[in-house]
Request: fold
Amino acid sequence: MKKNIVSVLAVNFLIMFLTASPLYSQEQKLAQTGMKFLSVTNDARVAAMGDAITALEGNSSSMFFNPAGMARLNSMISISTGQTSWIADINHIYGSFAFKPFEGDYGVIGLFFQSVDYGDLKGTIIAENEQGFLETGLFSPNAFAVGIGYAKALTDKFSVGVNVKYVAQDLGQSLIELSSDNLSLFENKANTFAFDLGILYHTGYKSLTFGMSIRNFSQETKFAEESFELPLTFKVSVAMNTLDLAEIDPGLHTLNLVVDAVQPRDYFQQVNAGVEYIFMNTIALRGGISTPNDEHSFSAGIGVRQSLAGIYVAADYAYTPFTVFQDVHRISVNLGLF
Reply:
């Protein structure tokens, strides 16, 4: 009886989560968000599947996509790290750690970070000279986010998760005023707190699972005068190991299919779809699409995993071709301690 009541509450929560989303009660502001590094996918497995991951359970890196995904962590400790060679020689790195004490009876707690190195840029200002500008020297923009996450499986079907994170970005100095005897500089720095929420619901029909997430929920912030919002994103997702329909042993073959409906704050709706084939829990082949998408629509990748002496090790690679910018390569490594 108790499980039935909780299941009913879980379904009601799914409905409220969808209808009460702030994305459905505000005017959409296209191309008007800041700190866009929060929208860059760093995990190679996720990127290879076209960013379609919201309804899949995972490891500590789930905190970057749907924190509820780590509620049923297979290992006691999960560690994930990786690097993304982004466009324009921008480098992203991330790391996450999750701990499941007392067999998960009190939930799973995690820590995570991500940072961005934009490289060295040459600063200039408009000037009335032959060149039309003056050089102000090199500057090195950077950004980072650090946070804590928590997830709990409330029943055998329903899981919830939440993140609290501190986000900061430093875009260097701006020359505000220049005269023969006056030089004014402004520090372009901004920071704020943000929240992520997520849920997973196992339907009970084979491996069919629904997921939802809201990421980067925060107040407006600003560098100088104009305020901006973080890239708030709402996702609804469905996932299933399609080989369950043929009753094939998942220890031999797994074919995960995931579809995400994406409602972002700063651009039009998208549909992401990903597929992952796993052979004998060792080798994974992945592919994904994102549509509509002006710059990149297709992605692919490969992964290997192995468990030995109480340690789980996985390495993943993803490739995303761009139409104008350089192609993007991602590498990530995951460790699990049982």
Remarks:
- Residues 2-19 form the longest helix (18 residues).
